[in-house]
């Protein structure tokens, strides 16, 4: 790939899962990638993939004060960031009544505040250049819900809404924003990456125990291929007119379409009451 078509990607969380798949695909396509990792082993492990074009920076996305200086250093030393992929995140599982509030705060710190802090750090540079693409990895859990992942869905609903507003705010500056919502993929999201709150209330056993068991059994056998997701991200980055929302996976497509149809029916069923609140 000629250098004029080569982009600089900044991807959070490149040690494993989607982040690693996205980074490897971008490097294989001739791009340069700066990836955030959380320790020295992760740094060495990442940079060996493409010593000239893969650079790792030690950064925890919840260390908010460190983000702006880190991004400024990348811009000064490595070059203009063309694409930010907010990938760092994790899943929290637990019934709302049983899950400590501190676990919700941690979930939002990583999945929402960390992503927004990254966006705020790159935006001044992208805005001045009148160019850039911000990609936020959300989830089908930013549209559809199921019992036992209230904190996770809450964080992804938040990131979907923030992405949509941001897209409207920066459209005039030549900056694209896309919220990418994957369905179930073979990453370690449901494995070692997931934080699970303890169980304490028997009333929820009948509803939740089968859900937790099914998720644990399905881990590693999900339909989604992370490498194909990475190819989709490269196609998204290359497109002239990228969407604000992109679903990845047939399961996400079917579940979100079902949710929208049910929502539309509910709106219609309650339309009279909805209309009843206007001044006459």
UniProtKB/TrEMBL annotation:
- PROSITE patterns assigned: ADH_SHORT (PS00061)
Gene Ontology MF terms in the entry = oxidoreductase activity
Q: Which UniProt keywords apply?
A: Oxidoreductase
Does this UniProt record's set of keywords contain Oxidoreductase?
A: yes
Q: Which domain of life is it from?
A: Bacteria
What InterPro entries is this protein classified in? NAD(P)-bd_dom_sf, Sc_DH/Rdtase_CS, SDR_fam, SDR_oxidoreductase
The family database entries (SUPFAM superfamilies) matched by this protein are listed as:
NAD(P)-binding Rossmann-fold domains
Q: Which Pfam families does the annotation name?
A: adh_short
Instruction: Tell me the protein family, please.
Output: Belongs to the short-chain dehydrogenases/reductases (SDR) family.
Which PANTHER family does this entry report, sorted A to Z? SHORT CHAIN DEHYDROGENASE, SHORT-CHAIN DEHYDROGENASE_REDUCTASE FAMILY PROTEIN
Q: What is this protein called?
A: NAD(P)-dependent dehydrogenase (Short-subunit alcohol dehydrogenase family)
Lineage from the top down? Bacteria, Pseudomonadati, Pseudomonadota, Alphaproteobacteria, Hyphomicrobiales
């Amino acid at each position: 790939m000629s250098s004029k078509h080569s982009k600089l990607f900044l991807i959070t969380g490149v040690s494993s899962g989607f982040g690693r798949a996205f980074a490897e695909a971008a490097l294989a396509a001739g791009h340069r990638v700066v990836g955030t990792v959380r320790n020295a082993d992760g740094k060495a492990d990442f940079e060996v993939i493409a010593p000239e074009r893969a650079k790792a920076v030690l950064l925890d996305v919840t260390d908010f004060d460190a983000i702006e200086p880190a991004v400024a250093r990348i811009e000064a030393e490595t070059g203009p960031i063309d694409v930010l992929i907010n990938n760092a995140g994790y899943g929290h599982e637990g019934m709302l009544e049983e899950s400590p509030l501190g676990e919700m705060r941690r979930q939002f710190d990583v999945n929402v505040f960390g992503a927004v802090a990254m966006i705020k750090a790159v935006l001044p540079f992208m805005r001045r250049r009148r160019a850039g693409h911000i990609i936020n990895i959300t989830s089908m859990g930013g549209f559809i819900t199921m019992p036992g992942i209230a904190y996770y869905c809450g964080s992804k609903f938040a990131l979907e809404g923030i992405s949509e507003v941001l897209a409207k705010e920066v459209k005039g500056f030549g900056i694209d924003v896309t919220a990418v919502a994957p369905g179930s993929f073979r990453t370690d999201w449901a494995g070692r990456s997931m934080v699970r709150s303890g169980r304490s209330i028997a009333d929820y056993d009948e509803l939740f125990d089968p859900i937790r068991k099914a998720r644990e059994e399905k881990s590693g056998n999900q339909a989604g291929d992370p490498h194909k997701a990475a190819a989709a991200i490269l196609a998204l980055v290359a497109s002239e007119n990228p969407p604000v929302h992109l679903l990845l996976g047939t399961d996400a497509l079917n579940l979100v379409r079902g949710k929208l149809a049910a929502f539309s029916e509910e709106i219609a069923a309650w339309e009279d009451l909805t209309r009843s609140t206007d001044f006459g």
